[in-house]
Amino acid sequence: MEETSLKNLIRHELRWARTLRRVEPIGYALTFLTDSLVLGISLGIILYVVKGSLLLLLIPAFLTLVLRIILHNSSNEITKSENLSEILLIPLRDILSFFIRLISYTGNSVEWRNNIFSVDHLGLMHEKQVINSQNISETEKASESLT
User: Fold this and answer.
1) CA distance 112 to 61
2) Which of 20, 22, 84, 141 has a CA 20 to 30 Å removed from the CA of 120?
3) Above 60 in pLDDT, residue 30?
């Protein structure tokens, strides 16, 4: 299901991230290797600090973006998709995924269907609190009625 707002998307992804982190902590920790754009930017900053070259600051992130666009276009050829505007979302998706991964380490609580749960080491959710329905926005109420 597609999320109806950025807030709902972040809640959904944070719920998955915290559950995965609790179930498979080592594997989840190693998923930072998939953050190619953030790693490229980090490498560029390190190269800039060490060598002082502005060009070395930009090359890793630029190469990462080029390779991600090539990969995106290749998968679009396989799936026969022609939506080229999605390319603009690649940097946003990478950065959002990176920050969700960081935030997932800040707690074990998740929000789902107007309840707050804690996630245990097995990935099971235990109810902590029921959220008052008066605090739910109209958008969230509409999205809940769809599920």
Assistant:
1) 36
2) 141
3) yes
Q: Looking at the chain, how many residues does it have?
A: 147
Lowest mean pLDDT among 24-33, 43-52, 132-141: 132-141
Q: Is 117 helix (H, G, I), strand (E, B) or coil?
A: strand
Q: Which residues contact 41 (CB under 8 A, 6 or more apart)?
A: 60, 61
Report phi then psi at 131, rounded to 5. Answer: -80, 135
The pTM of the full predicted model, rounded to 2 decimals, is 0.70
Closest by Cα among 27, 22, 31, 4 to 110: 22
Return the DSSP state at 24: -
Tokens 């991230």 identify what position?
A: 17
DSSP reduced 3-state for 109: strand
Reading across the β-sheet that carries 125-130, which strands appear in turn? 109-112, 115-119, 125-130
83 contacts 98 by C-beta, under 8 angstroms: no
Q: Phi then psi for 134, rounded to 5 degrees?
A: -70, -20
